[in-house]
Purine nucleoside phosphorylase
Amino acid sequence: MEPFVQSNSTNTMHLQSWENRFTGLLAGFTTRVGGTSRTPYASWNMGLHVGDNPDDVVSNRRRLAKQLGLPFEAWTCADQVHGTTVQQVSEEWTGAGRDSLDTVIPGTDGLHTNQAGVLLTSFYADCVPLFFLDPRQRAIGLAHAGWRGTAGRIGEKMVEAFEQAYGSKREELLVAIGPSIGGCCYEVDERVIVQIERTTKQWQQAVHPTEPGKYLLDLGQLNRLLLLELGLRQEQISKTNWCTSCRTDLFYSHRKEAGKTGRMASFIAWQQEGVRKDS
Ligand SMILES: [Zn+2]
């Protein structure tokens, strides 16, 4: 069953099974529909770094925070660099980057926290959004995994960060792999494949050769294989079937739109005590 379920009223995809199971959890992925940005960012662009009008982006972000029932001050994000640095978000970082690139958490592709009322976000147009949850320790996290981050094992860095920061047990973690460019559309060359070959012995399960020197790479599947190799079980991992390049009606696709486009946001947060999302 598709884990990311589109809500007709909000144009946001929610990780419905997680939200239903864990009271107070908000987790999901935005679509490109329903915002104020203009072409080529039309219309619900969440990225301040892509050349869109910043006022539109901030308005788009505010709309999501409002939908989620969180104050905009909770919105926290990082400057993503296709690296593997992960950062714990405590009070001093809460709210970083919400309305300006000047205050963003620098050089970071993974965020995690165990504090309620912190809205972790990260931005996508084809790369793989990873969502992490330790229900027992109430720890949550997001990681941005393009091919570089995936090959650099950012998923493993997140699992280790949860173990160190919260005493998480990896057999209790849940991970969701969100909408990205799929194995149907993501063509790569030898330069990428030589890096992918080093990630796991199972790498061929995520790669399909098409013509000499060309391959279709399923990055979501590769992340799944890497998580299984860390000792997570199948049932701990949910993986989407949405492809951002197949569905540019719903998603931005850096590849399909030749680099000039907006960004969706992945998000995860615990509601603050006493605040209900439908209030
Ligand atoms: Zn596709």
Residues 40 and 261 are 5 Å apart (CA to CA). Residues 4-182+223-270 form a domain with the CNF1/YfiH-like putative cysteine hydrolases fold (CATH 3.60.140.10). The first helix runs from residue 16 to 21. The pocket of zinc ion is lined by residues 182, 184-185, 243, 245-246 (CB under 6 Å).
